[in-house]
Amino acid sequence: MAGGGYDSDLNLNNVRLLGDFPIEHSLGGHGIADSQETNKYNLTLNPPITHYRIGLTLNVIFSVTNEDSATINVDNQGEIAIKKIIEDVLVDVSKKDIVVGKVYLLVFDGQAFQIVNNYSPGIIAFPISSENSMGLIEIATQTEVNAGTDNQRAVTPQKLAQYVADKVTGLWDDKGILDCSLNPNYPAALKGDAYTVSLAGKVGGAVGTDVQVRDVIYCTANNPGGTELTVGASWNVIQGNLVQATTVLAGVARIATQAEITAGLDDTKFVTPLKLITLLNSKKMRTQIRFQSDSLPDSQVLAAGSADYHFGIIAVGGIPIGSTIRQASLSWEGYIRNLDAANANSFDTGNIAMQRDGGPFSNYLNVTSKLQLGPEQVTFFRYVEDDVKNLATGNGTYLAKFANLSALAGSIAIAGHWTLEIDYETP
Fold first, then answer.
1. How many angstroms separate the CA atoms of 8 and 47, rounded?
2. Does 195 lie in the same domain as 143?
3. S-S: 129 plus which of 44, 135, 152, 155, CB 3.0-4.6 Å?
4. pTM of the model
């Protein structure tokens, strides 16, 4: 640690009156304060003091600048906070309040060492300026001005002008009118430049953007001017007219009526969410549903047997009441095999029928010429009648049959199942 002494060469310890005076009653000391730890200063006087007394004065030079609130320890008598006065309030010193090389006058008040001459190399105190008192003030840097967060430094006209210049760059700057009737290129411009179209045409050359009277072309980035291809990305076109909107031109349009939306013929008006959901809710839902009979095991039918061979019960359900059958088809998947080794079998006209809920068979489906079996021939793996909606009328039990089997010459074998597909529309 650096050594220190007192402001007078008179040491009361060397004077004997009625008794010895302690060294603390000598005149104030002076010295250089070292720092072995950040913001903690040590000062050594010669001869040393043995305790702090109120009113003790020290003229101190600090060897290290403080980074935060700080303390001083004189002759190992304990760390004492170093304070300053700001607007009549005693507060801790702030970062860099203590700088290297300046002489600070400290006075012990019983609790802390007060800096009498804050920010001054002499013993005259110069206060820091504030909104309520005059004093010293530092000029702000350009960075501090731009940040706008410091309320203790001053702004100069030069730095203020620079700040304002940066802020106004890119604001709207009306450059007058632009005749676009001959499809001119974009003019050279700075960000914020704006031109009002006086005559309609294109801007950015012959393949540029269509513009109308009163439209505004606005520069979004500095550019040297040119065609739509070269500098078009640096410009915006703001519509200033009331032309009809199209797929390529921004403009105005009215809301379509519900009737126009339902008709679906107008391509110049727009649809609102309300009218769209109204249209969708008005549409009937089409649904296709499939029902299948149990599979028919391989069975033999004699020609001399029943005139009609009933099989394939199809249970139909789940169709909402009031629905309209729009389409129905009946299909057979399986085989019919001729068991006669000598004779051909051929069905008569009207050989397939459907019966619903025990009612009479009607509307036979014609399979003439579709089902002709040669001797011992296997055929009829799949057969489809695409429109039997006059027979499929909704929920119920349907029975399919082969009719007029007695007309066959010889016996046949049958195995497979029926499928009924119904396409209906809900109310």
1. 12
2. no
3. 135
4. 0.35
